[in-house]
Amino acid sequence: MWAPLTGSRWPQRKARGRALASSAATQRCPCSRRGDVAHEQVGLAQPVTPGSCGAERVTADVRALMATRPDEATAVRAVAEALAVSLERSGFRLGCPVSTAALELSSQSEAVREVCAQTYADWQRLIAAHAVTVGYDETAAQARAELVLAALEGAMLLARVARDGDVLRRTATSLVSPPVPR
Question: Are 77 and 64 spatial neighbours (Cβ–Cβ below 8 Å)?
Answer without folding.
Answer: no
